[in-house]
Amino acid sequence: MAQLLDGKNALILGVANKWSIAYAIAQAFRREGAKLSLTYQGDRLKQTVEELGAGLSATRVLDCDVSKDADLARLRETLGKEGRIDAVVHSIAFANREDLDRPFLETSRAGFAIAQEISAYSMVAVARAIAPLMTEGGSMITLTYLGSTRVLTNYNVMGVAKASLEASVRYLASELGPQRIRVNAISAGPIKTASARGVKDFSKMLQAGVERSPFRRITDPAEVADAAVFLASDLGRGVTGDVLFVDAGFHIMGL
Predict the structure, then answer these.
(1) 3-state secondary structure at position 148
(2) Burial 53-75 (b: 16+ CB within 10 A, else e)
(3) Distance (Å, rounded) from C-alpha 21 to C-alpha 15?
(4) pLDDT reported for residue 205
(5) Rounded Cα–Cα distance for residues 156 and 164 (Å)
(6) Taking a C-beta distance cutoff of 8 angstroms, is the pair 13, 90 a contact?
(7) What is the three-class DSSP state of 92?
(8) Which distant-in-sequence residues (6+ apart) come within 8 Å of 54 by Cβ?
(9) Catalytic residues
């Protein structure tokens, strides 16, 4: 069977450890024949991501802080020296822990701003930096969550940031469509990642998935990864500006 991403060059931002959704996507992309470039932020993650990259036979592993335009410019320059990019995966989000622990009404001005910058605006910044390298079109994918459109206890400022991210996906899809660049989001169900554990009472979200989703289980990271393969491959060539739910059907349920 032909590999779905054979001959494609993929940039994946947000691999933090072997439990991260970005790592599951990187594994699936590699399985389907893509050449990988990974990024990490700062020395704390350097060794971990370099080791994971080596295991994936990644072409390069680069330091990039998406809140710094200079870092994104350097990323574009480095990647541009070796050809085009066909797929981008943006799996980056952040909110201050205290803004996830207290009521949304008490969100600090600074906390609101940083959640927006890292979780939403960074997608715009990455798209602006990398789109010029997507000379044959391609796919940009980001990760979102149901808290963007529904109130989920303790998700708070991150839910607002994800709503902004999804709106950004639609505007980017409209502007980049003439360049044959598709922009989509995957809304994954709750998964036991390091960042997810920063949400207060996250275990209750997992339990709700088991009790109420049509499949009566939580989401497998491999399911999210395979959906990303679809969106990055030619099979997804007619899909843009959309949010694809991969959450065991939880989003369809009411009471």
Answers:
(1) helix
(2) beebebeebbebbbbeeebbeeb
(3) 8
(4) 76
(5) 13
(6) yes
(7) coil
(8) none
(9) 145, 155
